[in-house]
Amino acid sequence: MRVTILASGSSGNAVLLQAAETSILIDIGLTAKRINGHLNTHGIEANSLAGVLLTHEHGDHTRGLRVFCANSSVPVFTNPLTADSLKRSGVAANWNLFASGAEFQIGDLRVHPFSVPHDAADPVGFVFRHAESSFAVLTDLGYATKQVVNCVQGVNALLIETNHDEAMLQNDTKRPWPVKQRILSRHGHLSNAAAAEIVANVATPQLRYVLLGHMSEDCNSSALATQSVRSRLDVDGHTQVEILCASGEGGCATASITI
């Protein structure tokens, strides 16, 4: 499997996942024009995608969906509540509905969607498997339930949000207190420390890569996020894990791994 982070952050999120003859997008939080440009860069025609999978309906994960679907018949995989939310906002798509918790197949990929706690209709994370390789997407959640840990444990690569440094968020003068409360809540976003603890709990000797994503440009830094996760992994002896920042300036990202 090849994982390419096209964008990760509050300005947009999109991941290209390729396995054998199957290519999919996980979230489509950039404009359709930008998504198509990224796909062309990687030699992929939009209509050749096996699907677009959605974690939830928030705009930074679905911004390009309406226009993309207006010009493409690529199936959109999501659960019924997320689909209903997007339909109410006027999105028409080739909907393919899954049940959170029920594994399904897309081409060469086995997909396991699982529920996560976030302030959306029915948000999910994903574990993808192909042959002996596995990759998990774990973004937009306030904390990790036991189910989340059990689903993700043992994967080879993990994309996890390190949204904020708590001290930087508390001291931020741009965000009103209610916004800070939402971010810090159990249905908000993970701090560096919370993400580091989750990574340590799910890490096994099979874990090779951790991609740090959905990073606040104002209330975090790649150095702080990396240090938090690195030091926590090292305590448990997981020195084999390579840590990469998926978020770049302006939410743009070019992180790419093969597992």
Keywords summarizing the entry:
globular; seven-stranded mixed beta sheet; Metallo-beta-lactamase, Chain A; 259 residues; 9 helices; alpha/beta
Which secondary-structure class do the elements indicate?
A: alpha/beta
How is the CATH topology named?
Metallo-beta-lactamase, Chain A
The neighbouring-strand order within the major sheet is 6-5-4-3-2-1-14
**CATH hierarchy: architecture:** 4-Layer Sandwich
Q: What is the rounded distance between the termini?
A: 5 Å
How many runs of DSSP E, i.e. beta strands? Answer: 14
The ordered string of helix (H) and strand (E) elements is EEEHEHHEHEEEEEHEHHHEHEE
The major pleated sheet works out as: 7 strands, mixed
Helix content: 25-40%
CATH class: Alpha Beta
Annotated CATH homologous superfamily? Ribonuclease Z/Hydroxyacylglutathione hydrolase-like
Shape: globular
Q: Indicate the proportion of strand residues.
A: 25-35%
Number of DSSP helical runs: 9
Write down the domain tally. Answer: 1
**Mean pLDDT over all positions:** 95
Radius of gyration, taken over Cα atoms and rounded to an integer in Å = 17 Å
Residue stretches low in confidence (pLDDT < 50, at least 5 long) are none
